[in-house]
Amino acid sequence: MSPLFRRKADPRERLVTLIRKPGCHLCDDAQLVVDKVCGELGVSWEHKDITEDRDLHDKYWEQIPVVLIDGEQHTFWRVNEERLRRALTD
After folding, report:
1. Superkingdom of this entry's organism (predicted)?
2. C-alpha distance from residue 85 to each of 25, 43, 51, 57, 82 (Å)
């Protein structure tokens, strides 16, 4: 569909997933950003622990923290607040 006719997604219909592991300071930093942005926009978010999911571990262990938006990778390592906000509202 042409972008001109595409409906702008309501941020409240999105899902952000933070893939992390315990003891990871970058993961803690990412969680603060995700919690802040999602809280302000009313976006649902969840976190998943790579130490509890072999598939996630195999796919993302070199990139954590990883942020997915609606199941698609948005970023890894460092989460930029403004970039995440734009991705959820554009």
Report:
1. Bacteria
2. 22, 10, 28, 26, 5
